[in-house]
Amino acid sequence: MEMIKWKRRNRPDKDAFDALGKNPLDEYKNFSIMSEYMTPMGRIRHSRETGLRPVNQRRIAKAIRRAVGIGIMPSVHRHPELLEMEMNRRADGWNRRNL
What we know:
By secondary structure, the protein is mainly α. It has helices spanning 2-6, 16-20, 31-36, 47-50, 54-70, 80-98.
């Protein structure tokens, strides 16, 4: 029983890209697919969240980096002005609580 919790998690044999017969590197121009594998802050999601095989997780990460490098996708999904306003609101709330 004790050994069960130390057993390695099985990696998926197939994922969405395998089922569709697509290579994630070829989809770097498709903003909707790329944005599904990114957080709202623009970071690449972990494989636990995406459910992709390790090979396709590396490929999707490379495709996202490629799209960001070319300028197709923003490096941060949320607009910098919105992030700044949000940070100012938090800072104002923090200052009011500590006065």
